[in-house]
């Protein structure tokens, strides 16, 4: 398998001047009908739009009525969409800018320089610079390279593999991770209240301060000569408890809502937050983990910074909490560890595919 483990970078392919993309990047023909021009899609004003939740009241209001109203908005969006733009989330704009500048700086390095940080998926070294390997019979690939690393808790980080250049990468990314961790606790407490649970409950169920892992994936989507044939990231739900996403203000993210693909608009200084499978399972489906994907385009490189907040792989059994299960609301998910959940998804994908995913594939 030596040859297969040498991943080729999408960035090299994109900068080679090819006019048509290799067949491995071309989506199955049923799926192609749903892929449009992302700039046109992001301009559309009709149809459902991803909700924007203003956390100002939740952050600093002394007034209980204001706090309750803000919480209700967040809870509703988590039930209805499972994804939203967060504004007034308390993370300073200049800190988010520094994180983005640092990540962009890393990706501006020559490929040879980035290769020094290459991961090695075959030997289990998943952190570092990488690209998707064709791991199934179809050989399907995605139009992106990435940098993946654990950013919190700090004692579990491996700083030796973090980018040394730009020199402020570690400082900016560490501070962002610390502040996201604080925000994670606040969000989980509101989501707990929304299920009628004590406010610390979901946080505890996903591992608390010691065990909940924050993993950053910087997605780098080069310009694509045939964007109508490819995807930056294929349709999936996140396995995390919560995911927080920053991006460089180039549209790309689409959500599969009410049987249609809805393109997320770019909201300045917002953080996109997804409810992932973990919280969907614990809530017995009351909070949704929405199917989503990423389009690419011809004109602009897109970069996104996704932080996945994940429970430990083996230590916790994920299953609907007894308080949210009843005779008329039976458990929708069997007990599984996080590792088993991931395994189950891979298995199901290698089989016939989940119905919703098949429907999404052929949707307009
Ligand atoms: C992901 C993801 C979307 C984006 O990394 O899981 O869905 O906007 N990314 O890059
Ligand atoms: Ni995702």
UniProtKB/TrEMBL annotation:
Residues 212-311 form the Fe2OG dioxygenase domain. InterPro entries: DIOX_N, IPNS-like_FE2OG_OXY, IPNS-like_sf, Oxoglu/Fe-dep_dioxygenase_dom, Plant_2OG-oxidoreductases. Keywords: Dioxygenase, Flavonoid biosynthesis, Iron, Metal-binding, Oxidoreductase, Vitamin C. SUPFAM superfamilies: Clavaminate synthase-like. PROSITE patterns: FE2OG_OXY. GO terms for biological process: flavonoid biosynthetic process; pigment biosynthetic process. Its cofactor is L-ascorbate. GO terms for molecular function: dioxygenase activity; L-ascorbic acid binding; metal ion binding. Belongs to the iron/ascorbate-dependent oxidoreductase family. This is Fe2OG dioxygenase domain-containing protein. It comes from Linum trigynum. The lineage of its organism: Eukaryota, Viridiplantae, Streptophyta, Embryophyta, Tracheophyta.
């Amino acid at each position: 398998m030596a040859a297969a483990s040498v991943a080729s970078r999408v960035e090299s392919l994109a900068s080679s001047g090819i006019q048509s993309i290799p067949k491995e990047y071309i989506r199955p023909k049923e799926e192609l009908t749903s892929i449009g021009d992302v700039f046109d899609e992001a301009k559309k004003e009709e149809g459902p739009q991803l909700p924007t939740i203003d956390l100002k009241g939740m952050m600093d209001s002394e007034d209980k009525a204001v706090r309750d109203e803000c919480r209700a908005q967040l809870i509703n969006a988590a039930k209805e969409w499972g994804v939203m733009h967060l504004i007034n989330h308390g993370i300073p704009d200049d800190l988010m800018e520094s994180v983005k500048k640092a990540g962009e700086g890393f990706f501006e390095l020559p490929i040879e320089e980035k290769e020094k940080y290459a991961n090695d998926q075959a030997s289990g070294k998943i952190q570092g610079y990488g690209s998707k390997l064709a791991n199934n019979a179809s050989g399907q690939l995605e139009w992106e390279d990435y940098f993946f690393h654990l950013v919190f808790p700090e004692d579990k980080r491996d700083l030796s593999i973090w980018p040394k250049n730009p020199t402020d990468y570690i400082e900016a990314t560490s501070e962002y991770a610390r502040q996201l961790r604080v925000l994670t606790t606040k969000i989980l407490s509101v989501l707990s209240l929304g299920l009628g649970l004590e406010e610390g409950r979901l946080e505890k169920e996903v591992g608390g301060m010691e065990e909940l892992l924050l993993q950053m994936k910087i997605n780098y989507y080069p310009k694509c000569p045939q964007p109508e044939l490819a995807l930056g990231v294929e349709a999936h739900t996140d396995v995390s408890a919560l995911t927080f996403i920053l991006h460089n203000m180039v549209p790309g993210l689409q959500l599969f809502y009410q049987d249609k693909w809805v393109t997320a608009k770019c909201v300045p200084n917002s953080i996109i937050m997804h409810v992932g499978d973990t919280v969907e399972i614990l809530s017995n489906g009351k909070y949704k983990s929405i199917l989503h994907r990423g389009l690419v385009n011809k004109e602009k490189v897109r970069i996104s910074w996704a932080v996945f907040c994940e429970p430990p792989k083996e230590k916790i059994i994920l299953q609907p909490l007894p308080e949210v299960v009843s005779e008329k609301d039976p458990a929708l998910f069997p007990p599984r560890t996080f590792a088993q959940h991931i395994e189950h998804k891979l298995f199901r994908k290698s089989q016939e595919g989940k119905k919703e995913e098949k429907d999404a594939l052929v949707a307009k």
